[in-house]
Batch of 2 targets.
Target 1
Amino acid sequence: MNSKYMKVVNNLGTILNIDGSCMGDLVRTGFGGVIRNNLGTYIVGFSGFINNSHDILFAELTTLYKGLTLAVSLNFEEMVCYSDSPLTVNLINDDYSRYHVYAVLIQNIKDLLSAKNLSLRHSFREDNQCADFMAKLKASIDDVFTIH
């Protein structure tokens, strides 16, 4: 992890990194994430497989929802979540059409973010490598949801 990113981690407290993955010739979709403390130390990770989906946006939104749900269940009061998907970040942080195909999932995510002091920001792919690993891990295994 580069020093610039560590400064951000130290200033913001608990971090949730998330990522979705669609890969392979027969497209397999997975998701994963990692929660770390203010020093960047691993607390908990999660990953899962999404059956019958080839939609990377759905994978990214599902990952965000699962990660936030896990964080809330573990009683994290403040957290910054990072995604390397600008589309996902914009759909959540900006106004969206209530007719969007994932409107219900988007609203559920917004509800989780507003229930606690949680926020969503964009990160570059290089700063999201651990979450990317978790997502690709589950894209190759059929476990629906695993906490590591």
Target 2
Amino acid sequence: MFDKFKQLGELKKMRDQAMEMQKALAQEKIEVEEQGIKIVMTGDQRVETLEINGEEQNSLKDVFNKVIKKSQEVAARKLQEMSGGLGGLLGQ
């Protein structure tokens, strides 16, 4: 029984570390500018700025953010399927 409490504590610690990492990544800025196209993206893969020939392309930026989010959801779902969720960690 105490083993499960210890595992839950470790799981919470891992979750807290992941949340801190996510916050840190959100603060990072990556910028690429080539051939009249400028994209600024955060480390957590969110497009902040998309410009073509100096003009902001907000609708294109929004579509990019939607497709990136969907791809992240698919990846998370696949990882969860592969790992069997958290049941194995909790001994269930």
